[in-house]
């Protein structure tokens, strides 16, 4: 295949988005089909480009004019993240009805997100990431302007920070290409900027951020693609930083910091989940919790950790499709989705969380302690999931475009993939090896070998899966729980209410009506321009004195 | 001759600063043009001198068309302007004679002094006629200022300055407002 | 002969449109023909090679030529897609006058001649009927000319280095006063016709003027280029902070547009002051965006501003993104280049600049709404402006190459 074909994963959804705009007279369904086809095409193109050779492909298409070359690269890492982005968006575009403007903008945002992942350069990633973020905010605004959405300023700040990191790499190392930047150019300040971009661009905070608030929108039609398009990019940056640092972050303390942040995010999500008053509020915390774990595992600094992060990412990709499709429903589909999300044995998420925590313990030291916190968080999340089954749904009436059967099928895939963890692990091992090179034999397909143990995935998780299936098969649905009998939260964080009230008070602070700001541009303009412009003379005089000292 | 010309230029600029009537402004422009022309002639730029003199005279003549009647030189309340004109001259003299070096002291005095007093005319309040006269005066000063440089076609600059100085006085105001 | 024609043809176009004022269509046609001829003459002028057909050596730099071309395209853009209630022949008349003046400034053999042309332009604009008092319209611009003139004089005097530094002060403050940025803010009346307001200096003539003054200034005082740069950066930062906050907080949306332009000029001044190629590229990119995107959007917003119509449709969100400097629009690569230049020259400057860049977002969101609900030709124009911004944002190299970078 000619090298120019590397543009296909970006060009196809871009063209589809443009075509959807131009063909809007054909109707919403036709435009949605065009957009979906473009995104499916992108996913197919990624696989079609990489599978035949299974090695890194690169192309440089010339300089763009702002210190950036349009360089594209496809390797296993790119394939993993591209599929994590493109496949959920493609499925959601296919099954959910939406108007033509939303379809077009989501297709364009997908193109931008894929460019961010396929870019060979940090600065190009920042441009593409910012584009994706902008388009996501616009898509959310098209759907419903006054519903919760990410703060634009924060998202732009994140990608601007990444751009700044990129130019620092260019200035310090002569290039910002992931594969060629000198290790010495990846300094702590540069890493801090990249980590800031990763965290803020993904919306992963210990407090309730947009990653959770999006799920409280009346319609989840655009919330799910928004999460799909933006959250994986943060994890992607953490992966590529290993490549730039030749397998390391600039300092070990940075690994600890990112890991601590990740577990804090997961823990906070779990705390909110166990106190959720409705299933809808619980669902809002599932993906942030998994994303927090992914960050934790990625920061561990070992190949095992990276593989675990990839497995959690894969689980998240299946869940981001299932969650909106099962919204407002109860019964087996909701149970399967909830189980898949929390990491019930013997699902894919279970395997990922297990491997990740093992990786943290094997690293030891502070990371090991953080791993302990991760275990506690997982247990708390499991308890929250168990509580959520008996919660009221939180949706009024039937949610449009819910597809419980499809959601259940995807959740089932996530669950039955557990025994195949060895295969998934082997694939992840090959992917992680691109950014964290190490010597060692290729892993077996039925077991997961770590430093301290060997996990017989197929043998252990297979029977567990059978037992779980039997238990589900023999179970009977419980009658609806009256509100008065709802289980209270497991615990309330001490001081949480006070903190919340204090923050609400701070946000409600406003200037009294009688207050007149000193910063009154019009008044200043009038004073300066009218009458005797003393300020002008004074400014000139002051500058003359300043330069002659 | 240089000193006389430089002082004449300053006097012309000061007249524009201190006058409110059209005759005073016209006289100021003519004297300014004459003074600057003298400086140019003394420096060996005869063509430029003729242009500057013509520009000043032309601007002065056209200035007589509109504005307040009479001379209006040093009207009541113009003492601050007089002081500023004097101070500007002293500063310019200090600059030309003490701070800077080389030939062309007359230029180094006249050009900054003239530009300074004309700028003050605008900043301290001026009607349409005085503002227009100040603009023409600045144009003439810029023209002669180019004679300080070694390249850049100073003769052409002086001609352009003279044309613009006269032309600015020929502009009639208040075109119809567009969309 | 091209530099001479680059001045003469737009001037002739202006004269024709003025003479044919009672017959707007003919005026439009005549102006268009002469204007197109002027643009062709500009394009065919080889940067750096002198023309002495008039006995005076006229040259044009690559950057100035690029700015002229872009200004001409912007003029054509706004005239062809003028708002419904705007008089196109009047817009073209004013635009050609500005273009002729800009061409004269660009090809002038020295900064003195350019300054004299600028003076004439200022007075001609002030002579037209406007809402602001005559003195108010003339005072700031003439002070600008006086300051630059004093700068030229000081630069040519032999003496201590302090004189050259004062010359730098004169050049920079004069430039800032000419465009009407902080602290030389001019009075602004939102109801005034754009052509007679301070806006043309901020958005149309100002870009070329800045390129010419800074380039000539560097040649004039080569020993004090650092001081020149430092002054530009200092005033640039003041304008960035003041302009972006004022654009967000000021009560009048029309005034907010002006302050946003001032903030953009702040970035331009920082870019020009950095003195490195990346800084110059950033400055030019912002100026190109100002001409091709922001100026047309401002003109199209005026009717909605008068009718007090605000909207939050997708097109308004896209405009907000473009105004906020978000990718994929032209503002983002300019910011990347600025950060790169600042990091290379003096990294604390980048530390100051980076958070300030976020202040465009609330202003952008506010001003995006002021476009109202564009329809028909206006919607088409907005779409083209946004497309141009995307092209500039994704692939600015051709335009930068035209500017010699």
Supply database-style keywords.
heterotrimer, B: 179 residues, mainly alpha, C: 405 residues, Four Helix Bundle (Hemerythrin (Met), subunit A), 2 domains, 18 helices, 76% helix, 0% strand
Write the layout of secondary structure elements.
The complex is a heterotrimer of chains A (549), B (179) and C (405).
Chain A: H1 8-22, H2 28-50, E1 57-63, E2 69-74, H3 76-95, H4 100-118, H5 122-143, H6 152-173, H7 188-202, H8 210-213, H9 223-244, H10 252-274, H11 279-283, H12 286-299, H13 303-325, H14 332-342, H15 348-363, H16 365-388, H17 404-416, H18 421-432, E3 448-449, E4 454-455, H19 457-474, H20 496-508, H21 521-529, H22 534-548
Antiparallel strand pairs in A: 1-2, 3-4
Helix pairs in contact in A: 1-2, 1-4, 2-3, 2-4, 3-4, 3-9, 3-13, 4-5, 4-9, 5-6, 5-9, 6-7, 7-9, 9-12, 9-13, 10-12, 10-16, 12-13, 12-15, 13-15, 13-17, 13-18, 14-17, 15-16
Chain B: H1 2-18, H2 22-42, H3 46-63, H4 79-99, H5 105-123, H6 128-145, H7 154-170
Chain C: H1 2-19, H2 24-44, H3 62-80, H4 88-107, H5 111-127, H6 134-156, H7 161-179, H8 199-203, H9 205-220, H10 225-249, H11 253-274, H12 277-307, H13 314-324, H14 331-345, H15 347-357, H16 360-369, H17 376-394, H18 397-402
Helix pairs in contact in C: 1-2, 1-4, 2-3, 2-4, 3-4, 3-9, 3-12, 4-5, 4-9, 5-6, 6-7, 7-9, 7-10, 10-11, 10-16, 11-12, 11-14, 11-16, 12-14, 12-17, 13-16, 13-17, 14-15
| Topology order of chain C in helix (H) and strand (E) letters | HHHHHHHHHHHHHHHHHH
Whole-angstrom Rg of chain B: 16 Å
Number of strands of chain C: 0
The averaged pLDDT of chain C comes out at 90
Shape descriptor of chain B: globular
Number of domains of chain C: 2
Number of helices of chain B: 7
- The percentage helix of chain C is over 70%
Largest sheet of chain C: none
N-to-C CA distance of chain B: 54 Å
Question: Separation of termini of chain C?
Answer: 25 Å
Report the oligomer. Answer: heterotrimer
Largest sheet geometry of chain B:
none
Structural class of chain C: mainly alpha
């Amino acid at each position: 295949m000619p090298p120019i074909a590397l543009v296909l994963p970006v060009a196809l959804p871009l063209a589809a988005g443009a075509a959807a705009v131009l063909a809007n007279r054909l109707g919403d369904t036709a435009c949605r089909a065009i957009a979906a086809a473009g995104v499916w095409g992108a996913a197919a193109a990624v696989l079609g480009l990489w599978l035949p050779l299974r090695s890194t492909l690169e192309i440089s298409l010339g300089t763009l004019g702002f210190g950036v070359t349009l360089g594209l690269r496809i390797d296993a890492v790119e394939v993993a993240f591209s599929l994590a982005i493109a496949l959920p968006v493609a499925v959601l575009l296919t099954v959910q009805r939406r108007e033509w403007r939303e379809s077009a903008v989501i297709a364009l945002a997908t193109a931008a997100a894929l460019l961010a992942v396929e870019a060979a350069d940090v600065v190009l990633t920042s441009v593409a990431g910012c584009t994706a973020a902008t388009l996501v905010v616009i898509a959310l605004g098209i759907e419903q302007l006054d519903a919760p959405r990410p703060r634009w300023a924060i998202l732009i700040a994140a990608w601007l920070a990444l751009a700044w990191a990129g130019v620092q790499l260019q200035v310090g190392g002569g290039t910002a290409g992931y594969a060629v930047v000198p290790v010495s150019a990846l300094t702590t300040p540069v890493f801090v900027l990249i980590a800031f971009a990763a965290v803020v661009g993904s919306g992963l905070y210990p407090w309730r951020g947009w990653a959770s608030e999006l799920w409280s929108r009346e319609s989840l039609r655009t919330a799910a693609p928004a999460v799909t398009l933006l959250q994986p990019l943060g994890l992607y940056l953490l992966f590529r930083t290993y490549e730039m640092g030749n397998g390391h972050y600039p300092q070990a303390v940075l690994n600890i910091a990112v890991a601590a942040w990740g577990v804090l995010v997961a823990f906070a999500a779990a705390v909110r989940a166990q106190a959720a008053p409705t299933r809808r509020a619980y669902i809002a915390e599932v993906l942030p919790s998994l994303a927090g774990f992914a960050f934790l595992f990625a920061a561990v600094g070992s190949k095992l950790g990276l593989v675990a992060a990839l497995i959690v990412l894969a689980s998240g990709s299946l869940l981001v499709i299932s969650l909106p499709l099962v919204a407002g429903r109860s019964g087996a589909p909701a149970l399967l989705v909830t189980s898949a999300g929390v990491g019930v044995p013997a699902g894919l998420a279970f395997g990922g969380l297990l491997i990740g925590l093992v990786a943290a313990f094997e690293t030891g030291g502070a990371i090991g302690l953080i791993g302990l916190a991760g275990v506690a968080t997982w247990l708390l999340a499991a308890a929250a999931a168990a509580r959520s089954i008996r919660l009221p749904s939180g949706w009024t009436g039937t949610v449009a475009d819910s597809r419980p059967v499809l959601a259940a099928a995807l959740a089932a895939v996530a669950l039955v993939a557990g025994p195949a963890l060895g295969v998934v692990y082997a694939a992840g091992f090959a992917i992680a090896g691109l950014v964290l090179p190490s010597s060692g034999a290729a892993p077996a397909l039925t077991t997961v070998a770590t430093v301290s143990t060997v996990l017989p995935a197929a043998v252990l998780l297979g029977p567990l899966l059978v037992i779980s299936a039997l238990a589900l098969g023999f179970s009977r649905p419980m009658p609806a729980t009256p509100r008065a009998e709802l289980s209270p939260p497991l615990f309330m964080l001490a001081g949480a209410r006070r903190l919340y009230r204090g923050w609400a008070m701070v946000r409600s602070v406003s200037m009294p009506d009688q207050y007149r700001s000193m910063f009154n541009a019009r008044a200043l303009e009038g004073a300066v321009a009218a009458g005797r412009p003393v300020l002008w003379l004074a400014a000139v005089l002051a500058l003359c004195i300043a330069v002659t000292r | 001759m240089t000193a006389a010309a430089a002082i004449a230029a300053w006097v012309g600029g000061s007249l524009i600063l201190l006058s409110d009537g059209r005759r005073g402004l016209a006289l100021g422009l003519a004297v300014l043009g004459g003074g600057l022309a003298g400086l140019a002639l003394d420096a060996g730029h005869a063509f430029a001198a003729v242009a500057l003199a013509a520009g000043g005279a032309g601007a002065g003549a056209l200035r007589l068309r509109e504005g307040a009647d009479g001379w209006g030189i040093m009207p009541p309340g113009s003492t601050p302007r007089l002081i500023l004109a004097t101070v500007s001259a002293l500063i310019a003299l200090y600059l030309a004679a003490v701070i800077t070096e080389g030939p062309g002291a007359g230029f180094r005095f006249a050009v900054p002094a003239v530009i300074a007093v004309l700028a003050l005319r605008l900043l301290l309040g001026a009607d349409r006629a005085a503002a227009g006269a100040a603009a023409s005066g600045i144009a003439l000063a810029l023209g002669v200022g180019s004679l300080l440089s070694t390249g850049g076609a100073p003769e052409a600059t002086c001609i352009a300055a003279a044309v613009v100085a006269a032309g600015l006085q020929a502009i009639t105001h208040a075109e119809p407002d567009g969309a | 002969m091209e530099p001479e024609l680059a001045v003469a043809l737009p001037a002739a176009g202006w004269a024709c449109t003025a003479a044919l004022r009672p017959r707007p269509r003919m005026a439009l046609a005549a102006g268009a023909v002469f204007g197109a001829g002027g643009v062709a003459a500009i394009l065919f002028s080889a940067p750096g090679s002198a023309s002495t057909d008039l006995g005076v050596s006229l040259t044009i730099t690559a950057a100035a030529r690029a700015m002229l071309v872009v200004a001409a395209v912007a003029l054509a853009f706004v005239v062809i897609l003028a708002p419904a209630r705007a008089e196109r022949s009047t817009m073209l008349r004013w635009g050609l006058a500005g273009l002729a003046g800009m061409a004269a400034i660009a090809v002038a053999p020295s900064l003195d001649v350019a300054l004299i042309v600028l003076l004439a332009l200022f007075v001609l604009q002030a002579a037209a009927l406007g809402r602001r008092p005559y003195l108010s319209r003339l005072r700031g611009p003439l002070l600008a000319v006086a300051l630059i003139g004093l700068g030229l004089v000081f630069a040519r005097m032999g003496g201590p280095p302090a004189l050259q530094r004062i010359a730098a002060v004169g050049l920079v403050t004069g430039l800032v006063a000419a465009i009407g940025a902080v602290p030389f803010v001019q009075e602004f009346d939102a109801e005034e016709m754009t052509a007679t307001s301070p806006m043309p200096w901020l958005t149309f003539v100002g870009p070329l003027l800045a390129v010419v003054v800074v380039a000539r200034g560097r040649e004039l005082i080569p020993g004090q280029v650092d001081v020149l740069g430092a002054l530009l950066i200092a005033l640039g930062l003041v304008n960035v902070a003041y302009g972006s906050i004022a654009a967000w907080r000021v009560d009048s949306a029309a005034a907010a547009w002006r302050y946003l332009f001032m903030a953009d000029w702040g970035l331009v001044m920082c870019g020009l002051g950095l003195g490195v190629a990346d800084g110059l590229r950033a400055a030019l990119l912002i100026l190109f965006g100002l001409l091709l995107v922001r100026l047309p959007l401002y003109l199209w917003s005026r009717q909605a501003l008068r009718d007090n119509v605000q909207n939050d449709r997708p097109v308004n969100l896209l405009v907000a993104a473009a105004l906020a400097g978000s990718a994929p629009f032209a503002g983002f690569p300019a910011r990347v280049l600025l950060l790169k230049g600042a990091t290379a020259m003096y990294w604390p400057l980048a530390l100051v600049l980076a958070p300030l860049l976020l202040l465009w977002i609330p202003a952008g969101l506010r001003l995006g709404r002021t476009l109202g609900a564009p329809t028909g030709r206006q919607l088409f124009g907005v779409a083209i402006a946004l497309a141009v911004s995307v092209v500039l944002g994704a692939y600015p190299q051709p335009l930068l190459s035209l500017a010699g970078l």
